[in-house]
Write a structure and sequence with these properties.
This protein has 168 residues and is mainly β. The chain contains three helices and eleven strands. The strands form two sheets. Strands 3-4-2-1-9-10-11-8-5 form a nine-stranded mixed β-sheet. The protein has a two-stranded antiparallel sheet with strand order 6-7. β1 and β2 form a beta hairpin. The longest helix is centred in the middle third of the chain and has 10 residues.
């Protein structure tokens, strides 16, 4: 995952005036085309999917996205919450649930100073543990790669399995 200079600067300096625009792309075998959402803006936006690529329409919607990260225990899962889901996503999500296949997610971050290309792209995400309500949907973002979710060197040392660790 490479970051553009503009998005690196926006992440590094919270006082900078450049605003990061988060977008989410939801794709599933049952969708005719991916659903693209631009987070927390008032109007739909036409943004390029990749550097120099054609622009696609992203629908404005209230979304809270927390991307995956790392802490002392290893990788952490991300979270996705979408408001106003009844109008935009409910038909798509119902079709995805019926199909029983995972919902693929791609995150793209853009900076207002450079809307010509995404500053960050995180693909290979999967939406799981989805809770669908009448007006909102929430779910967990996980990587589709099992290597990111496994302990290294493939053992997890727990007190139940290794009682001699008690008191260390």
């Amino acid at each position: 995952m490479s970051l553009t200079d503009a998005i690196q600067e926006a992440y590094a300096d919270p006082d900078i005036d450049d605003v990061i625009i988060d977008t989410i792309e939801l794709d599933h075998a049952s969708f005719a085309e991916p659903v693209r959402i631009v987070c927390n803006v008032e109007q739909d936006m036409d943004l390029p999917i990749n550097d120099g690529g054609l622009k696609a329409r992203f629908i404005a919607c209230g979304v809270k996205v927390t991307l995956q990260g790392f802490d002392d225990d290893g990788p952490t899962t991300g979270q996705l919450a979408v408001d106003n889901v009844s109008k935009l996503l409910q038909p798509h999500l119902k079709a995805a649930v019926k199909a029983g296949l995972p919902l693929n997610v791609t995150y793209r971050g853009y900076t207002v100073s450079d809307l010509s290309r995404p500053g960050e792209v995180r693909g290979g995400l999967m939406l799981s543990k989805v809770s669908l309500g009448p007006t909102s949907a929430t779910g967990t973002l996980e990587t589709t790669s099992k290597a990111d979710r496994q302990a290294f060197p493939r053992l997890t040392y727990s007190l139940a399995d290794y009682p001699a660790l008690h008191g260390l």
